[in-house]
Every structure is written in C-alpha cells, then in structure tokens.
Write a structure and sequence with these properties.
115 residues, alpha+beta, six-stranded antiparallel β-sheet, 45% strand
C-alpha cells in the first residue's frame, strides 16, 4: 500500500511539473516575439501512433511576421518544410494555422504523428 502511495504521489508531482511548463517549450518550439501561449486552450493526448498536441498563442503582431519567423526558425530546429506552414521532424508533423486581423494574430500549433 505504501509503495502504491509513493507511485501515485510521484505521478501527481510529475504531472504538475509538466503542466507548469508551457507546451511549446516542451515541444521545443519557440514562441515568436509578441505572442503569448494560451495555457487554457491546449489539448494533449497520446494515440497508438504517437502524441497529438494542439496549442494556441496570440498577440499584437502581424500574421505575416509570425509566418516569416517560423519559416526561418523551425528548419534550424530540425523541422523540414513540406508546404505552407507545414513541417516534419522525427516522425511528427507540425501545422501552423495563422490568422490575424486588426494587428491581433492567433496561431494554432497542431502536432501529430506523421502519416
């Protein structure tokens, strides 16, 4: 019984530390200047073929500036561009949906198993 309690406590502490760190940091994806990650809008789950992560960030920055940033930075981190705002790395696909109006930009990051 004591061993089960220790294991449960360890899992709770691990889960709390994982939640304390922004998802984009955990995915090794930098946040473009001017954007703020929306912790409440994130979704993460595991599938039989890998993890699925959806994260939102928004800010007072032009959509074109955000797109240019990720086109430049993601390849430096091992992501290979395969189309407009679509990248592959280590068996995972990353898609960025970038929308903006009136200087406000919303970026939805979707990470899923490549396939």
């Amino acid at each position: 019984m004591k061993q089960v309690s220790v294991i449960l406590l360890s899992l709770i502490l691990f889960a709390g530390s994982a939640l304390a760190e922004p998802w984009l940091d955990q995915l090794d994806i930098p946040l473009a200047e001017g954007l703020v990650e929306d912790d409440a809008a994130g979704t993460v789950f595991e599938t039989a073929t890998g993890r699925v992560v959806v994260v939102e960030a928004r800010g007072d920055v032009a959509a074109a500036t955000v797109e240019q940033y990720y086109v430049r930075v993601l390849p430096e981190l091992g992501w290979r561009a395969i189309g407009a705002n679509r990248f592959l790395r280590d068996g995972e696909a990353l898609t960025l949906a970038v929308t903006g109006s009136d200087g406000q930009t919303l970026v939805i990051f979707r990470l899923s198993p490549q396939g």
